[in-house]
Amino acid sequence: MAPTVPPPGIDIIPLDTVEKVHLAARVLAEVWGGDPGGMPANLLRALAHSGNYAVGVYDGEEMVGASVAFFGDPSSRSMHSHITGVLPGRQARGVGRVIKQHQRDWALSRGVGHITWTFDPLVARNAHFNLRVLGTRATEYLVNHYGPMDDGVNRGDETDRIMVSWALAAPPVPTPGDERVVASVEIPRDIEAMRREAPTDAATWRLRVREQLTGHLADGLVIGGFDDARGYLLVRR
Fold first, then answer.
1. Secondary structure of residue 30 in the 3-state scheme
2. What is the residue-wise DSSP string for 77-100?
3. What is the DSSP letter of 74?
4. Helices (H) and strands (E) in the chain, counts
5. Of 41, 39, 31, 44, which Cα lies nearest the Cα of 152?
6. Could you give the CA distance from residue 205 to residue 187 in angstroms, rounded to a whole number?
7. Strand-pair partners of 71
8. How much of the chain is in helix, strand and coil states, percent to nearest 5?
9. If you average pLDDT over residues 91-113, what whole number do you get?
10. Tell me: the pLDDT tens digits for 67-84?
11. What CA–CA distance (Å, rounded) separates 162 from 137?
């Protein structure tokens, strides 16, 4: 990943005080639609104090985002990025890429070779960022992975997720060429707007994408990349 210059005024700072931890918990609750249980301050404090990745994203003096990751099995030399969020109105400025660059550098300096995380397979902008921009590898489709969640983003929906793995010292996984693509699975361009305006349609998309992706994976295909027009691109192993 090429070095990314933070937007003017943006800094990433460790959550090294109780005050910062509680502020980060409030910021993440706001990002997820008012759920204070998404990342409780006491858990965040424990993760930060025990040496895991826990940072606040500042725009000047104001915390506008936060990111938390924890170490995986020691033998795997991996870290799992559990939650990253930036306040509405402060997104789409390249901040997400800056956070991932910071996370990558932090992990490499501690001997970590891979970072994993999950994302909602229906959110096109996340699929684009994870698979096309960062070049991660999709490793699993997880059906209703977290069970019911009572936040403003996930309430009323099942929590299917795609797990990705980012090999920090390797070149990005390229989007497969047309000659390798065996099948594709389309997703909505803006599932978040659809959930607000047509929740029944959104629920139908959830089941449709789940059925198609799990079916292709069961047939021995793997998710090889993402295309903004066609959706997920399935290839042979």
1. helix
2. TEEEEEEEEE-TTS-SSSHHHHHH
3. G
4. 6, 10
5. 31
6. 7
7. 79
8. 30, 30, 40
9. 90
10. 999 999 888 899 999 999
11. 10
Q: Are strands 231-236 and 181-185 parallel, antiparallel or unpaired?
A: antiparallel
Q: What is the mean pLDDT of residues 62-66?
A: 95
Closest CA to 13 of 60, 83, 71: 60
In the prediction, which pLDDT does 76 show? Answer: 87
215 token code pair: 């079916």
Task: Report how far residue 52's alpha carbon sits from residue 44's, in angstroms, rounded to the nearest whole number.
Answer: 10
In this prediction, residues 142-148 reach a mean pLDDT of 85
Given a contact cutoff of 8 angstroms between Cβ atoms, the answer to whether 67 and 82 are in contact is no
Instruction: Catalogue the long-range contacts made by 23-27 (C-beta closer than 8 Å, 24 or more residues apart).
Output: 23/56, 23/63, 24/54, 24/56, 24/63, 24/66, 27/56, 27/63, 27/64, 27/65, 27/66, 27/85, 27/87
Cα diameter, the chain: 54
The reported pLDDT for the residue numbered 5 is: 64
Place of tokens 């996930």: 154
Q: Please name which of 118, 12, 107 lies closest in space to residue 65, comparing C-alpha atoms.
A: 12
Quote the distance between the C-alpha of residue 132 and its chain's center. 13
Q: Which residue has the tokens 């994976």?
A: 217
Q: Check whether 167 has a pLDDT greater than 90.
A: yes
> The pTM is what?
0.90
Q: What is d(CA 65, CA 62) in angstroms, rounded to the nearest whole number?
A: 9
